[in-house]
From TrEMBL:
Its main location: cytoplasm. It comes from Salvelinus namaycush (Lake trout). Pathway: Lipid metabolism; fatty acid metabolism. The lineage of its organism: Eukaryota, Metazoa, Chordata, Craniata, Vertebrata. Gene3D superfamilies: 3.30.530.20, Hotdog Thioesterase. SMART domains: START. Residues 441-611 form the START domain. GO terms for molecular function: carboxylic ester hydrolase activity; lipid binding; long-chain fatty acyl-CoA hydrolase activity. This is Acyl-coenzyme A thioesterase 11. Pfam families: 4HBT (PF03061), START (PF01852).
Length: 632
């Protein structure tokens, strides 16, 4: 009965794909409204559709659409509906005193409310005072008018030793129409000043969404810790290629946009720990940045994005806070404003508190971006800021392109280069974690202690193969990480070469697979392999793969260039000698013919492949795994 059910479902799924001319929607929406593309991994029978014949289209998420990642009500044993113990909600009606000159909620005021809500959530979990350490990039999708209601929700996604990540979601509510829409999402890092046990207690995820955010929080933290160093390196490499600044007729002098303002920190500006409220500092920074943007365009600008806020030191009551802003560069429809905050007391030296880069637009009466005047930078520092703004724009687009995925059409194989390596790696691992966090997998069949699960949702079929081996988890991780040895247990791997060893965690391979039909050509893939060790005992080892493109390795006549969506290994240590290995794959039209018989119970090739994998791992359990050598 199980086989017949899945055969019927699979047949319907294949017919649907055929009727849509193999046009699959590959967009997934995750909590806080951030779509992430399930970039894929080549595994097992991961023969994907040829790049030349695939068309990818993204499903637009209209207002009121259901969120596929939305958890059903979680009922506790007591009969009560579960609510995250760290969750804090704030609702504020926008009054004229909160609005700017356009009758819209000031972003500075919104930042104060967001920071306050997130801080209360962090302190609820820590049981002690907390301070804002950083706020990740924020993209404001909509403005909020006077009379509308702002609903802010914050909860702790994960706690580390002394810091924790708090997820923040903001939506707007129109009381007259009962409509609600997303405004922005953010992730803030808070540090507990002291705890009774010396370190923070762990967050215990209870729902599917909480498990997913808990898992991805470790990846976001990894990117956060290396952010400053990587950005510095990218700016150095990118600005060196830009050459001299272009001269534009009628350009506005950058010095005209310079703003400097001082604020005296008074008790109303402080939090309950007598330190300057982080949200207040962000609001003051937004204020001077808006003035600088106004001076360029002689109009009222709209703030669209804020790059990561990173608080470098505290400020206290009695400090004089000096806020400086200047337009670094103006592009066709947007401008970047650099802003910094420094503090001093009396005749003391200036202390650097915070820096940020904000992107503004000017909208016309139809709410479309206007063309902006160009900037004429001043010598030396002005030209440096001008060129760095161009480099940051590219980095910002890469980040939005790969992580946010707001564009309407995205190729599965994103071009790889050093400037987007960090974001591609983040997306690669996060996509696998999202798939692994799903809780509605259905058992299709089981044989020789190898289980095959399927998940069909929104016209997308995913499958999972699960088994146990008597090999330590770390050794299994090292053995499976090296794709050059894949042919030893998977007959679908013909050849695998290392192209680039980007760093110790990311490697780019070229994989060749044999022809699967008479008279046809084999396929080759350019794959980014991202490896992750556990952050703590609640994390698995991960190996994530996805297709990328490299100009040095174009498609050849001998092979059909294939692309893969999302697949990978999740390796859990269940004991010192027993390891659970789960393999995930998001199917494509090209892979369906190779898995349909297994899912319908008419073939057992998957079980043979995983039996070979188990044998390979056990035979090499005591061998020294060697990672690919660096080609850089």
């Amino acid at each position: 009965m199980v086989c017949r059910f899945f055969y019927t479902r699979l047949k319907s799924f294949v017919l649907l794909i055929h009727s849509c001319k193999c046009d699959l929607t590959v967009c997934r929406k995750v909590p806080f409204g951030r779509p992430v593309y399930w970039t894929s991994l080549l595994l097992l029978h991961e023969v994907a559709c040829p790049a030349s014949t695939r068309q990818s289209r993204v499903m637009s998420c209209e207002k009121g659409d259901g969120d596929p990642m939305e958890d059903p009500l979680f009922i506790l044993e007591s009969g009560e509906v579960y609510r995250n113990p760290t969750e804090v909600k704030m609702s504020q009606i926008v009054m004229p005193c909160h609005a700017n000159h356009c009758g819209e909620l000031s972003v500075g005021q919104l930042l104060k409310w967001m920071d306050s809500t997130a801080c209360l959530s962090a302190e609820r979990h820590a049981g002690s005072p907390c301070i804002t350490a950083s706020v990740d990039d924020i993209h404001f999708e909509h403005t909020i008018g006077v009379g509308q209601v702002v609903n802010i929700k914050a909860k702790v996604n994960r706690a580390f030793t002394s810091s924790m990540e708090v997820g923040i979601t903001v939506n707007c509510e129109d009381l007259f129409s009962s409509c609600q829409w997303n405004v922005c999402n953010a992730f803030a890092t808070f540090v507990a000043r002291r705890t009774e046990e010396g370190k923070l207690k762990q967050v215990i995820p209870r729902t599917q969404t909480e498990q997913m955010e808990y898992s991805i929080a470790a990846e976001r933290r990894r990117m956060r810790l290396t952010h400053a160093e990587i950005i510095t390196d990218l700016l150095s490499s990118n600005t060196a290629q830009l050459g001299e600044c272009q001269e534009y007729q009628g350009a506005v002098s950058a010095e005209r946009t310079r703003v400097e303002s001082v604020e005296l920190v008074l008790p109303p500006h402080a939090n309950h720990q007598v330190s300057t409220f982080g949200g207040q500092i962000m609001a003051w920074m937004e204020n001077v940045a808006t003035i600088a943007a106004c001076r360029l365009c002689n109009a009222h600008p709209t703030l669209r994005t804020i790059d990561m806020f990173h608080f470098r030191g505290p400020s206290h009551i009695g400090d004089r806070l000096v806020l400086k802003a200047i337009v670094n560069n103006a592009f066709k429809h947007s401008m970047e404003v650099g802003v910094c905050a420094e503090a001093y007391q009396g005749a003391g030296a200036l202390r650097h508190i915070n820096s940020a880069f904000m992107t503004f637009e000017v909208l016309d009466k139809d709410r479309k971006p206007r063309t902006l005047p160009r900037i004429r930078p001043e010598p030396v520092d002005g030209k440096r800021r001008y060129q760095e703004a161009i480099a940051r724009k590219k980095i910002r687009l890469d980040r939005k392109y790969i992580i946010s995925c707001k564009q309407t059409e995205v190729p599965l194989s994103v071009p790889w280069d050093i400037s987007n390596q960090m974001y591609l790696s983040y997306n690669n691992v996060s996509a696998l974690k999202i798939m692994a966090a799903r809780s509605n997998w259905m058992l299709s069949s089981e044989k020789n202690k190898v289980s095959l699960y399927t998940l069909e949702e929104n016209q997308i079929l995913c499958f999972k193969v699960e088994t146990h081996v008597t090999v330590p988890a770390e050794q299994a991780f090292h053995l499976l990480s090296d794709l050059r040895r894949r042919h030893e247990w998977d007959r679908h791997y013909q050849k695998c070469d290392v192209i680039i060893q980007a760093d110790e965690d990311d490697t780019i391979y070229r994989v060749a697979t044999p022809c699967v039909s008479k008279g046809g050509k084999g396929q080759d893939f350019i794959l980014l392999a991202s490896r992750r060790k556990p952050c703590d005992s609640r994390d698995p080892y991960l190996i994530a793969l996805r297709s990328v493109t490299l100009p040095t390795h174009p498609a050849t006549e001998d092979y059909t260039r294939g692309e893969v969506l999302c697949a990978g290994f999740s390796i859990w240590e269940e004991s010192n000698a027993v390891t659970k290995i789960s393999y995930y794959n998001q199917a494509t039209p090209g892979v369906l013919p190779y898995i349909s018989n297994d899912i319908a119970g008419l073939s057992s090739s998957f079980y043979g492949t995983f039996h070979s994998c188990n044998k390979y791992l056990e035979e090499n359990r005591d061998s020294l795994a060697v990672l690919p050598p660096s080609d850089l």
